[in-house]
């Protein structure tokens, strides 16, 4: 398998276009179905050698055809096979009908399937292109199966999972393994689809890479170093601390200083040459008691910040962690509108009633990174968040275009989006990153990369990845304080 292809993400619409172009080029479409079905059968035999019966659940399209091919190969290998068809088998068309005719036994109705001990289910009802809720009869079968311990192998995607968004269309199988072909779809990586897929295998069934590249239109990818490594700063001998950038993190009041310190420490560990915490006077002492390599500067109000900004070396800032929600945050952001800014937490929530005030200040080359979790996204982009017709990728892309900013739409399936339409799905973050203060650490990492000259979107994508790697290094049970110490430059 060409890893350059298997690591791609194609939307269901793009994959449909690939299939059509392959057929138009003279490739035998039934031969492709044969290889797909063979791959599914091989997966069952490899991982479930003790199977007593293969229960193959077939849908009304080509996904069902893949199921019939798998059923035939399993039958020929000596496995007991029963096929259960959704709808009338005579309504199958084209390659799917040919696959049905080549299977030696008549199918039973899908609704009649009852799981039993020793079964392994092949879910070939719907593929990645499902764009509606599953019918009631299919939902009943899914719920019946999910209530047992019978293993499920999904063909392309677990039936009920939307291949574009990863969302569940009414109900979906919980698969032990998922077998897909040529490339993955966004629904394989987005939640809850990623969790419902179980172990994912990508099989090459013989479609030329030129066809796949020709039909890939969306700038969607899995986040990884190959996408942004060239944008990272080089480690040349002639560098010094100012060339590595000066990052400023704003602190909150005396009782809310910890978040800024975690962000600042993460920035230092991520490679910034200097890191300063800018704190109100009542928080200077509290911060000073905990700082060593991180510097401290008293900033009480707008006048003090305006005066300090005469130093042109101050170009990159993090505002939000523990800062407090309100007018002060908005006034500080106005002063920073010509600089590079990571706006997180309280800083972002300060604009919930006036998001356009924020967006209007950051025109031109993107220099703003916004890092909302689900609730913050809904407050700042309420209409986008409420649009049920689009998924997380499209929401992040729309928000990035509106704000002219890199958006880090956080969650178990964090999506990083650029105003130019690029969108990366992050997958390396362990579940234990869901801990208080984790987002503060992320903001510091992104700010440090921007301070070192990495463009906003690449800094956001690389920062999210580095954050995940730090979580993996820290292991289960880590706190945000420990997470900050695990940050390593890439």
UniProtKB/TrEMBL annotation:
AMP binds at residues 410-414, 439. Binds 1 potassium ion per subunit. Residues 15-213 form the YjeF N-terminal domain. PANTHER family: ATP-DEPENDENT (S)-NAD(P)H-HYDRATE DEHYDRATASE, ATP-DEPENDENT (S)-NAD(P)H-HYDRATE DEHYDRATASE FAMILY MEMBER. The lineage of its organism: Bacteria, Pseudomonadati, Pseudomonadota, Alphaproteobacteria, Hyphomicrobiales. Homotetramer. It catalyses: (6S)-NADHX + ADP = AMP + phosphate + NADH + H(+); (6S)-NADPHX + ADP = AMP + phosphate + NADPH + H(+); (6R)-NADPHX = (6S)-NADPHX; (6R)-NADHX = (6S)-NADHX. Catalyzes the dehydration of the S-form of NAD(P)HX at the expense of ADP, which is converted to AMP. Together with NAD(P)HX epimerase, which catalyzes the epimerization of the S- and R-forms, the enzyme allows the repair of both epimers of NAD(P)HX, a damaged form of NAD(P)H that is a result of enzymatic or heat-dependent hydration. Bifunctional enzyme that catalyzes the epimerization of the S- and R-forms of NAD(P)HX and the dehydration of the S-form of NAD(P)HX at the expense of ADP, which is converted to AMP. This allows the repair of both epimers of NAD(P)HX, a damaged form of NAD(P)H that is a result of enzymatic or heat-dependent hydration. The keyword Lyase applies. Its cofactor is Mg(2+); K(+). Belongs to the NnrD/CARKD family. (6S)-NADPHX binds at residues 62-66, 127-133, 156, 259, 322, 373, 440. InterPro entries: Carbohydrate_kinase_pred_CS, CARKD, Nnr, Ribokinase-like, YjeF_N_dom, YjeF_N_dom_sf. K(+) binds at residues 63, 123, 159. HAMAP family: NADHX_dehydratase, NADHX_epimerase. One of its GO terms (molecular function) is metal ion binding. Keywords: ATP-binding, Isomerase, Kinase, Lyase, Metal-binding, Multifunctional enzyme, NAD, NADP, Nucleotide-binding, Potassium, Transferase. Residues 224-490 form the YjeF C-terminal domain. Its EC number is 4.2.1.136, 5.1.99.6. This is Bifunctional NAD(P)H-hydrate repair enzyme. Pfam families: Carb_kinase, YjeF_N. It comes from the Bacteria. GO terms for biological process: metabolite repair; nicotinamide nucleotide metabolic process.
């Amino acid at each position: 398998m060409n890893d350059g292809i298997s690591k791609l993400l194609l939307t269901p619409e793009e994959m449909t276009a690939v299939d059509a172009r392959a057929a138009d080029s003279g490739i035998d479409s039934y031969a492709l179905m044969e290889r797909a079905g063979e791959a599914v059968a091989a997966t069952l035999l490899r991982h479930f050698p003790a199977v007593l019966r293969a229960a193959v659940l077939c849908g009304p399209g080509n996904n069902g055809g893949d199921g019939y091919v798998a059923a035939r190969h399993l039958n020929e290998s000596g496995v007991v096979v029963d096929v259960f068809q959704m709808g009338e088998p005579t309504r199958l068309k084209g390659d799917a009908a040919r696959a049905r005719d080549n299977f030696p036994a008549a199918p039973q109705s899908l609704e009649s399937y009852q799981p039993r001990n020793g079964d392994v289910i092949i879910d070939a009802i719907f593929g990645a292109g499902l764009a509606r809720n599953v019918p009631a009869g299919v939902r009943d079968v899914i719920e019946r199966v999910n209530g047992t311990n019978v293993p499920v192998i999904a063909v392309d995607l677990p039936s009920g999972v939307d291949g574009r968004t990863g969302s569940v269309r009414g109900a979906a199988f919980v698969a032990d393994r998922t077998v897909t072909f040529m490339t993955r779809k966004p629904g394989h990586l987005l939640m809850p689809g990623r969790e419902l897929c179980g172990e994912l295998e990508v099989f090459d069934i013989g479609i030329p890479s030129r066809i796949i590249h020709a039909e890939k239109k969306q700038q969607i990818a899995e986040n990884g170093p190959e996408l942004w490594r060239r944008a990272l700063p080089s480690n040349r001998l002639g560098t010094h601390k100012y060339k590595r950038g000066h990052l400023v993190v704003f602190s909150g009041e005396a009782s809310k200083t910890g978040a800024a310190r975690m962000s600042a420490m993460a920035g230092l560990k991520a490679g910034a040459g200097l890191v300063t915490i800018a704190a109100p006077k009542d928080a200077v002492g509290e911060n000073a008691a905990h700082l060593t390599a991180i510097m401290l500067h008293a900033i009480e109000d707008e006048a003090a910040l305006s005066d300090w900004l005469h130093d042109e070396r101050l170009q990159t800032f993090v505002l939000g962690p523990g800062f407090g929600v309100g007018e002060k945050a908005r006034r500080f952001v106005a002063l920073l509108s010509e600089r590079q800014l990571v706006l997180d937490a309280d800083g972002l929530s300060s604009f919930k009633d006036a998001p356009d005030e924020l967006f209007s200040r950051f025109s031109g080359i993107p220099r703003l990174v916004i890092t909302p979790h689900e609730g913050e996204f809904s407050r700042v982009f309420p209409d986008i968040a409420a649009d049920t017709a689009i998924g997380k990728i499209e929401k992040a892309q729309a928000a990035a275009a509106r704000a002219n900013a890199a958006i880090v739409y956080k969650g178990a399936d964090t999506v990083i989006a650029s105003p130019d339409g690029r969108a990366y799905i992050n997958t390396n973050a362990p579940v234990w990153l869901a801990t208080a203060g984790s987002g503060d650490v992320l903001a510091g990492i992104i700010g440090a990369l921007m301070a070192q000259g990495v463009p906003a979107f690449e800094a956001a994508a690389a920062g999210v990845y580095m954050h995940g790697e730090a979580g993996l290094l820290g292991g289960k049970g880590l706190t945000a304080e420990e997470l900050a110490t695990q940050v390593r430059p890439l």
